[in-house]
Specification:
Layout lengths: L6 H62 L3 H23 L16
Helix pairs in contact: 1-2
Length: 110
């Protein structure tokens, strides 16, 4: 039994393999980008949760100090300390020189 393959059939087979490989690679790139976007949104939610938890802790401490203490110095510390922390965080946020860990791919523009 002899199998005869024409040059046209070889070209079609190779073209099909190349097209299949390109589709697979583009799917992998799309999946990687989708995963990075999902991680970015999780970071935002995680940051919001940490901010809310820290805020609740600071408000709780302030409430305890103002409810159970008559000491003026302790009250001032309870009011000033969160302001210092907030000023530090805002200053760091506004002085950002690098935006995350953006990866560059071959097809991306710079």
């Amino acid at each position: 039994m002899n199998v005869q393959v024409t040059p046209t059939e070889i070209v079609v087979a190779l073209s099909s393999l190349v097209a299949l490989m390109l589709m697979w690679r583009s799917g992998a790139r799309r999946a990687r980008r989708a995963a990075e976007q999902a991680r970015a949104s999780v970071r935002v939610v995680s940051l919001a949760g940490r901010v809310l938890l820290t805020t609740a802790g600071m408000v709780g401490v302030q409430w305890l100090v103002f409810t159970y203490s008559a000491d003026v110095t302790l009250r001032l510390v309870a009011l000033v300390l969160p302001d210092l922390v907030a000023a530090y965080v805002v200053t760091r946020a506004l002085a950002v020189t690098e935006l995350g860990t953006a990866r560059r791919y071959r097809g991306d523009r710079r």
